[in-house]
Amino acid sequence: MFYREAGQFKTSYEADQSILPIFQDRIAMYIMLMFAFIVFPFIANDYWLGSILIPFLVLSLAALGLNVLTGYAGQISLGSAAFMAVGAFAAFNLHVRIPEIPFLVVFLWGGLCSAAVGMIFGLPSLRIKGFYLAVATLAAQFFIEWLFTHFDWFTNYSTSGVITAPPMHIFGFAIDNPLSKYFVVLTIVVLCAFGIRNLARSEIGRAWMAVRDMDIAAEAIGINLMKTKLLAFGVSSFLCGLAGALWAYAVLGTVEPQAFDIIRSFEILFMIIIGGLGSVSGAFLGAGFIVLLPILLNNLGSLVTGGAISTETIAHIEYMIFGAFIVFFLIVEPNGLARLWQIGKEKLRLWPFPY
Amino acid sequence: MNNVVKNIKSNLIMSINHVNLSFGGLKALVDVSLNIYEKQILAIIGPNGAGKSCMLNIISGIYTPQEGNVEWKGEKRGKIAPHDIAKMGIARTFQNIALFRGMSALDNILTGRNLLMKRGLLAEVFYAGWAKEQEIIHRKKVEEIIDFLEIQSVRKTPVSRLPYGIQKRVELGRALAAEPELLLLDEPMAGMNVEEKEDMCRFVLDVNEQFGTTIVLIEHDMGVVMDISDRVAVLDYGRKIADGLPKDVRADKKVIDAYLGVG
Amino acid sequence: MIYRILVTLISYIMLIGITVSFAAEHFVPVTSYRTGPYGISGAPAANGYVDYLKMINARDGGVGGVKLDWEECETAYKPDRFVECYERLKNKGVAGATVFQPLGTGLTYSVIDRVADDKIPLITMGYGRTDASDGSIFPWVFPLLVNYWSLSTAKIKYIGNLAGGMDKLKGLKIANVYHDSAYGKETGPVLEKQAELYGFDLKGFPVAHPGLDQKATWLNVRRYKPDYVILRGWGVMNQTALKEAARARIPAENIVGVSWSCSELDTVPAGKAAVGYTCSSMYNPGSHYKVFKDILKYVHEAGNGTGPIEEVGNQQLYKTGVLMGIMTVEAINKATEKYGNKPMSGEQVRWGIENLDLTSERLEKMGIKDFIPNVKISCADHEGGAPVKFQRWNGTSFEPASDWVTTDQNIVRPMIEASSSAYAAEKGITPRCN
Amino acid sequence: MKNILLKILQCMLKIVNQKRFILTFSVLVSVIILSLAIYLFMDYWFFLEVFIGGLLSGVMYSLVALGFVLIFKASGVFNFAQGAMVLFAALTFVRLIEMGVPMLGAATLTMLVMVILAIAIERIVLRPLVNQDLIILFMATIGLNYFIEGMAQLVWDSNVHVLDLGIDEYAAYEIGEAFVNKFDVLAALIAGGLVLLLALFFRYTVIGRALRAVADDHQAALSVGIPLRTIWIYVWSAAGLVALVAGMVWGSKLGVQFAIATVALKAIPVLIIGGFTSVPGAIIGGLIVGCGEKLAEVYLGGFVGGAIENWFPYMLAMIVLMIRPEGLFGEKIIERV
What we know:
The complex is a heterotetramer.
Chain A: H1 13-16, H2 23-43, H3 46-72, H4 80-97, H5 103-122, H6 134-150, E1 163-164, E2 168-170, E3 173-175, H7 178-200, H8 203-213, H9 215-220, H10 225-252, E4 254-255, H11 262-275, H12 280-305, H13 311-332, H14 336-350
Antiparallel strand pairs in A: 1-4, 2-3
Helix pairs in contact in A: 3-7, 3-10, 3-11, 3-12, 4-5, 4-6, 4-10, 5-10, 8-10, 11-12, 11-14, 12-13, 12-14
Chain B: H1 2-6, E1 12-23, E2 26-37, E3 41-45, H2 52-59, E4 67-72, E5 75-77, H3 82-88, E6 90-92, H4 105-112, H5 121-126, H6 130-149, H7 164-177, E7 182-186, H8 194-211, E8 214-218, H9 222-228, E9 231-236, E10 239-244, H10 246-251, H11 253-260
Parallel strand pairs in B: 3-8, 3-9, 6-7, 7-8
Antiparallel strand pairs in B: 1-2, 1-4, 4-5, 9-10
Helix pairs in contact in B: 4-7, 6-7
Chain D: H1 2-17, H2 19-41, H3 44-75, H4 82-98, H5 103-126, H6 134-155, E1 172-175, E2 178-181, H7 182-204, H8 206-216, H9 218-223, H10 228-254, H11 263-274, H12 279-304, H13 312-323
Antiparallel strand pairs in D: 1-2
Helix pairs in contact in D: 3-7, 3-8, 3-10, 3-11, 3-12, 4-5, 4-6, 4-10, 5-10, 7-8, 8-10, 11-12, 11-13, 12-13
């Protein structure tokens, strides 16, 4: 009824290739952005902003990064957390060594370092294919974790390996309360999301998908596999690095290798798989699922039972429900939440008529 | 042989000289030489496993022969990556369709133009400046191809949902998008019904005439081959047993034997 | 179907953070970890903590006539989950949260800045950020009783006694087998300082997390031929270490563990390999103290025990949990003495902790006489530098292996002040207390 | 005479040209050279002990890796839940023993439970997802992993349980000055036996053949009338058996507790070196990883501050893959055009 493309004629290819060709989608996007930027800050309390929305956004960014690599370019990676760590530590080190440097530069630096490392560990992808490629990224994961734990230079010789992240300042404003942090994170994440969307619909994006879908054919039509794959690794780890820096500065307030362990890498992989490979919205949906559901269940646990059942039992039931949910969603829609959203839209397109 | 030489209306674009190709013990091609002349349609025929596809794979650089060499426009071609060969102006389709299944027909054909596009990360991230312009320009070109192949209606549909015949067309479109000088078609009409075959023949001929593209195609349907090709080369067990005008080849003793399995 | 589920989910989500009206009670946030690789260690501690709170409510009707109220939150030993719990619980209760006890060093670090902003004290008993013992720089953090560095000085003293006097340490070889993490590495500097002070030879052996297979490490240790081994592990690493030590023919008598390698979870699975193993502890072994009797009487026999009844007074980490409870309650109690019998806020409780003075009489009254030593907290000293008890595992239970061993603040304090003042400089904090 | 020699030479060249040969050969050579150097310059008894110890713990890893191989071989799925299954099996086993069930009975009962689990998994998870992409099945196992972890600790508990198989863990054979732990040797024997069993099973039984068929092509297997579902049940049950054995061995080593779910991580490099599809590969991979990491830790760790055990196996695996992209024993990936 309300979701109709009919009658929306594109008079130019430009219009047809715009980011959201369908009018209603654009509206929806504007509304969402408005909510994110204007409504949430008003209605949400510090708990919501600080410990639910910000982590959610940061991890979505990481998931977005991985989705570039795995979803678009088809290269599996189990080292996202390591690249996050690189971002965090690079940012921190630049910051403590050159304190007067503008903050956005610090974040960019974090991203770029991570991108460089990512490309190095991406090199094997030229020879190793499929699930075997996971080994390269796993090597990155464990090696980098070990590196940061062992060499005190990275932690600026602090007595304990854990560093408290220095305070953030952007254009002279102190970014110290959840609200301001939320705005910074949100802005960065939204920009990145649009950036990736643009890449996905232009030459590079097509090259990535070509490599993913059929690398021999891609090569035969003149796509340089090596360059394309490495570019994917670079962009992906750039986003991960950015996410890592944000995680350290905006979420935890500490920089420690243990915060970026293998478990985190798996989490991020789960996000894009559950959210939907090769779609920007998938990254957000997946992150929502993985980040919010446990917190939600945990809250419900204490909310509903009110301490009648031991917390231990609740914790274990949480695990089970979480796992059950994953399987359930797969059976309902194997291609992830993003696809589910698609189907919903197609249904909406025909509503109220069945065909 | 001489009747061929007589019939050269055009000059040599590629020549394959005495190539040998073998996988482990299996000899796929033995001392095969083949000349490809500009603006001609060359058909390679032969029984299954005669090494036809191997020829195409050598031309498009997916295989490199152990012996022999390939000359492109008079100069020898060393070991060279397929994507560079594509840049030289050689495009191809595959025997079993090799489309990018995750993408729409439009995107598939657009990807075919990637090698004509400029790459710049930042510009594309912001989808600004020349990045945007080139998208529009190439989109126009692609639309022309889409019109030419009469697949306007399925533009936006994911290729995985398209019927076989249409997929073949899209793949042809992807190859054409690169505006190649030499177009390699690996069984473009396999598994098609009569109408589809006729369409495809028309496309092939049109491409050859309108764009003046040289075409090498592999085909089993003798009728088709004899109708559309200027020259026919016959492979059998990795050896070239005949090469000439369709009518001569049809009359050739060795060819008949090869097909009827005599001798 | 799915849409309905999604909708319900979302509506539930909206419920979170909406705070209901509270009764007039002291609110004690209990952040525990009962799942994940460290869950086995986290669960008994949490049980002890909650049991003690329950017991206080049942026996004394709360503190100063005001009942205790608490909510448990699963952190899974992850900093991000802990921060979420912290933010969730910090504003609950009439007067807000009284005091947080993260029971994890990484967790501690992630809230050190936050507690200062939210004015909620942080008790990190026997763990956490060492240089936070300097109360003049860290007003809100309390590494009570004994921090990592003080502990390691006590350990060297104990080893000295074993060797027959500190002068005998000269020329001895001591191996430091540690969990390869921030926690494990932290005692490195202070040990080296003592090594050069007493002239013994020190070598560190990191164990890769989580330490399921330590053959290589212990072969290295054996090759080093140490006279004594310091075991600084956590979780599954400990018992594996003890077993591998036995396989490497290193007698358990020569292995001295830290407080976090000192529970039945570490010794029992190691079987006979652990017999004779000694480790440090903040309290005396044995379950004969009144406090445990009370817990049994008022909580478990009343049928609302938190964990299994066997662990009461018998499980080391359970005792640690009880000790956490004791400190929390005593702090609140101290605060009520000053601010009157109403729900205490974090700020008031902070004063309470800072003025803790556990004299023998007080301990007597609390039913924990010589369970823990006397301690006195001051504005500058947030630790108390309490002496340490060493315990020996005899195959079935821990028994005292030493008298109370005092820590060497002459070594520790300067290091702490150096480190904390550096922090102050970095953050631009002006020291208090004088 | 001359041309015979030539023939032989050619044959040798043929063999030498195979990558696998080159690899194993170079490994062998380097090991020999290394051991020579050690014999001459170092405490070689100690080296021997490290070497053997490494091999033995390697076998412990491959014991876990086997479970992955089975399921991957038959369904191409990387079963993320294998670690959880090990935990579940071990917990069930130890709790039954604590209830006073004799060891053999406990083992049988646990096996029964694992079979039931396998059936349940097939019914509830795999059947609705048949003919889906492998990545999706992989995801399903992720869900399973969480579920089983939760269930294992809910049904039983999350305390640490001592599992005593009645084997003295500290007795050791003494080879010169080197100790070789008897328990480890036994574990190695168990693993070896299991591999032999599975290898025979795959080779000679009807189910085994069906399994291989399924592994090659689901559709084809179905079309010739192989019941995919029952096959899956068999496979998951077999994986359950492996999980049980691994759980028993690791459980008696570490005590049965949540942490043994994490040994799965140790299995990944083993799989990658050995190849996901090869049962003997899992063992060889385990041996390489085991003694590789131990030697590295003991002889190289010192130079870089130690604790390199976590990442060294992956670097090793990476090198192997650079030479042979499908692992030492994995089936060769052939791309048709």
